[in-house]
Amino acid sequence: MDSVLGQALGHLRQAAHQLLVEPDPTGQALSLATEILDIENLFEELSVEPSWVPAGDSAADSLAAAGQLLGRTVEAVPSQVWPPLLAVLHKAGDHGDR
Amino acid sequence: MATVDALLAALHDRTGELMTQPTSPEAAMLGWHRLAQGTIRILATIGPPPDVMPILQKMLRDMVRRDAPVDSAMTAIGYTLGVLADTLNSHPDTVNHADHASRGQLRSCVLGALHQVAMVTLTAMHTDPDSRDRRLVRDLADATEAASYVPWRALHEPLGGLSLGPFPGSLDEAVDRWADNATDILNSRTRITSYAFQRTAATIARICHAAAIAFADPLGERHVDGPGEAAMVRAFQAWQIAADWPPEVRLGGRTTELRHRSRELDEAFAAQHLVQAETPLQQDAMFTALVQAEKIAAQHQSALIRVVADGGLWISVQALGPAYQTRHPGASRAHWVPDPGTAYGATLIDRGERASRELRAAVDHVEQREVVTRSPGQAHSPTPCETVAPAEHSLQRTSTTVASRARNMGR
Q1: How far apart are CA A22 and CA A32, in angstroms?
Q2: Which of B18, B174, B221, B310 could form an SS bridge with B268, CB 3.0 to 4.6 Å?
Q3: Rounded Cα gap, residues A4 and A69, in angstroms
């Protein structure tokens, strides 16, 4: 189970990385990336060790991959992770295929 | 909170506002009690002129207290004088040791404003020239007339920069709390994490982004021109890059409180829409945030250099590739190992150095502009002094940027 959480964390790390390297005239990518960093921090507090996973085609894809993994193991996901995760998934969807 | 300089500027502005408004004879005497009270407290701190104090005390004693409407310029002047008095009284040593010229300038600013208010009252009460209250105001106008000829200008430091300290819930307070915690974490060899590095850099980037928008406002006292705005955009971009750590690099650990402090700061930025009308104060608050960010940037950089030098970074074995695994057959692809000498550390340090340079340049732009717009001897003006060229690298506004009241502080 830990490896699933670790992989999800790996996808979140890729998503933050992808957002931070893109041109960001509005500051929205930075804002979304900081929310993802905060979720990563939540996982690390729970002693989840990240797995290194390949990057998705976009930050939205990486986020979606993390969401799918966590969605398959709902019972193993700490409850405090869900609200911020759903928020970033929603925002990533709103801002197109980042 | 606003500085003494910002409060004097507000006093100047509100007095100007009062002079342009029609005042009825009935309304002219409202609010004088509060004005006299605040002024007495200020003058008691900086040394009262002997002829003014007795008049003010007589006003307090003899006039019936009748407050002006809450939203009137007269009430705003009274409150401004009250906050100014609180601010000066909270720094008795600095005020006592301030140079004679600064104290004299401060006294003239306050008495000059009082003279203008008295003249408004006298003009409005021309139909009742012999009333006791009007005679008191006339005496005050006479005693303060000389001060009204002293040109209005900002005070020298440290008097002009005094303030009451962070306003609860303000951007100042959020910045202070964030900076305190970031300092704590960045200076700890045991509690530093990759999250701390990334989140701190991201927050600095956010401050730069918000500052670029705030300082571009031509109505603000600290408005910067196109090159200044471009410098802040470059600092924002450089810190965003510094916040990016490759996913194959990490430095584990727990940094809960920094997450809370960073979120608080994000929320303070998001509250900007509540105080958009206070542009000059917002620019002061943003300047304070920028200066704090510059301090944190220096600590971020030295912490990063220390961690890399100590071999503290962890690298994903999978990302190190098959060559590493061939040389280290026991290393599992799923594991993380201490940095075996990759270029990641040097890259992160380079990014941090560049970002720090860009931030220093951005802060220098704001400071230079402050010198230009508030040089000694120049009358204070809330409006920009120069024509502003559009910024080449201007940012698009978003709904979540900066907020709040001002507190000035030196670097």
Answers
A1: 12
A2: B174
A3: 7
Cα–Cα distance list, B390 to A47, A54, A78, B284, B293 (Å): 49, 42, 49, 22, 26
Summary count for chain A: helices (H), strands (E): 4, 0
CA distance linking residue B308 with residue B310, whole number of Å: 5
How far apart are alpha carbons B77 and B7 in whole angstroms?
10
Contact across the interface for B202 and A40, Cβ inside 8 Å? no
Spell out which residues of chain B touch residue A41, defining contact as CB-CB under 8 Å: 195, 199, 254-256, 259
Q: Mind listing the pLDDT tens digit for each residue in B202-228? A: 999 999 999 998 888 776 666 777 888
User: Per the CB < 8 Å rule, is B195 touching A37?
Assistant: yes
Which has the closest alpha carbon to B115: B153, B146, B84?
B146
pLDDT of residue B281: 52
Q: Measured between CB atoms, which of B210, B248, B266 is closest to A52?
A: B248
Q: Is the ipTM of this complex over 0.90?
A: yes
pLDDT digits (tens, 9 = 90+) for B130-147: 788 889 999 999 999 999
d(CA B109, CA B42): 11
Does B255 sit within 8 Å of A13, measured CB to CB? no
Cβ-based contacts of B355 with chain A (< 8 Å): none
Residue range B284-336, pLDDT digits in tens: 778 888 989 999 999 999 999 999 999 899 999 988 888 888 888 887 877 89
